[in-house]
Write a structure and sequence with these properties.
single chain, alpha+beta, HSP40/DNAj peptide-binding domain, 15 strands, 25% strand, elongated, HSP_DnaJ_Cys-rich_dom
Amino acid sequence: MTVHIDYYEMLGVQRGADDKAIKAAFRKAAMECHPDRHGGCPERTAKFKQLNEAYDCLKDPQKRAAYDRFGHAAFQNGGAGAGGFGGGGPDFSDIFSSIFGEFMDPRGGGGRQNAARGADLRYDLELTLEESFAGKSATIEIETMAPCEPCEGDGARGAAVPDRCNTCGGAGKVRAQQGFFVVERSCPTCHGHGVTIADPCPECQGEGRTLKRRTLTIQVPAGVDEGTRIRVAGEGEAGVRGAPNGDLYLFVHLKRHSIYSREGTTLVADCPVSFTTAALGGSITVPGIDGEKIEVKIPAGIQSGETLRLRGKGMAVLNGRGRGDLVACILVETPTRLSAKQKEILGQFRETETGEECPNAKSFFSRIKDALG
């Protein structure tokens, strides 16, 4: 006696479920127990076959109506092919194409066009920090495969036209049964193009494209950083015989700046100041990345290595509004070339020192004194 599992129960749906719910349930269950994901496990293979049988029945309105009325008996004794459907069992090639095709072919679309799609291109674009701040209209030259002008990209000479491939029927791919599975591969006759050319274009040898130098103008947005990737759709290599073009990817590289280093949207500048300015306070002027002169006020008593942050004076925010900050890193410089008069003044200052002027130095030497007993 053969025990049949209820198709609805097998897919985990209610009897009144609509087609969308049944398809979603099948996709989820089929992916979970697909034999390829479990090393060809016999139990998973059997379960996968049962799922396909259930889905093949419930997705067909007539078969589903017969099953709802008579159960599995509707397909026995010649009803629709004993032990299967329509005498030949489910068409696994169609199931793979409709259910798993989107995972195996991330670009989507027909196999012929994807097989002949043009390659993506990479271009390294070097910018100054000022250009990355403001954005730029960059003109670049690339040498790439472009549609052949004499044959207008179809690969045939003159008025001749490509013929539909008789082997694959224009699909660019053929299927072969290998045991339980159907294997799909590129057509050996047309090599995935879907057409054959009896009289190829002499300029491109039937490929429909030739190597050319092209000039492109690209708008680089403000705020791009080192390593930013800009995709320009359809500006890559031309596809074979009119197939879609690839894409162009620009990778941004920033030249070293004479004053600033960049950390995201923050600009950092090392700012040397004299020890008198550090002691008494004052100000310095630095050039902003936008050309504006920026005054940095130095508070009296600032120490070397301390930083001053100026809000909104940094880089532009990519694809957004506003700006980052500018950070001035103060480096107190000890003079190395003193006149006699300056040495005399500094000597007088040293004679008036009490130790309270530099509390960190006083604390340090106090600890040394304690350590030495």
